[in-house]
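Record type: monomer structure entry
Structure origin: computed from sequence
Chain ID: A
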Amino acid sequence: MASTDPVPDLEAGIQYWATQPANYDGVLGGFGTGSLPRVDSLGSRRFLLDLLPELSTVPSPFRSLSAPPSETRRVRALDVGAGVGRVTSDVLLPLVSDVVLLEPVEPFINEAQSRGKASESGKEINDSGYRVLWKGIADRSKSVTFFKGALQSFDLAAPGTPLDRVGYLPPDGDDDTESKFDVIWCQWCLGHLKDDELVQFLQRSKKALRDARSLIVVKENLCREQNEPVTVFDEQDSTFTRSDLAFKNIFRDAGLKIIREKIQHGLPKGLYPVKMYALREA
């Protein structure tokens, strides 16, 4: 790519998203009130359960009813570019114990906190008028910890002081903010990173995984390619849309291997294809 080609600008991207409604419709580009949120979240949960069947909360031939102690530990996930908490609420909390939510856009992180606080109080409707019941937050069996920041600078190993936390608290005042992750979920946000920034973020993410079964999941739009990597720049929100091969080259450069990849079916016509990649250290 020539040096004169446009590249994502973080501040321009944040400024664009700050003008969008802080709700599902806003973060999903006008598709928040149709079938897309449900189809997307179902596809994401199924993808994750196929890889980590022990996360299933219902009897399954893939999961023992008497799980050994190693399978009853608290499962921790990171949701990056999390918007108003859609993936946290609809994908991760139904499956894991604790979620760390990272979002750089002020109206979005404020709305995510509002939804978490309402859930903790047992309210069905938050202060913005949206229905919220985040799983496990009211009974404090699960938790969400909120950070405001961008992927380019976020330190997964030492994230610092959170904005807030709802739900479960570790016993005896223990601090789990520097604990490693079982799942790092990256969806519809990586286009805000330049190629070198994305490689560096994925390398930091790789080091923040708990063990050999832990996963990085990337779920992103794909542009077309013809046997070579392609990157398309969108001036409106200052992002890249990458092709399949462009992503695979970045994963390789970050020292990651693909253990599963799958197209998300059932989304509205006219959108880019959306693909999920599950990654572990190469």
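Annotation 1: The chain has a mean pLDDT of 92.
Annotation 2: Residues 228 and 245 are 7 Å apart (CA to CA).
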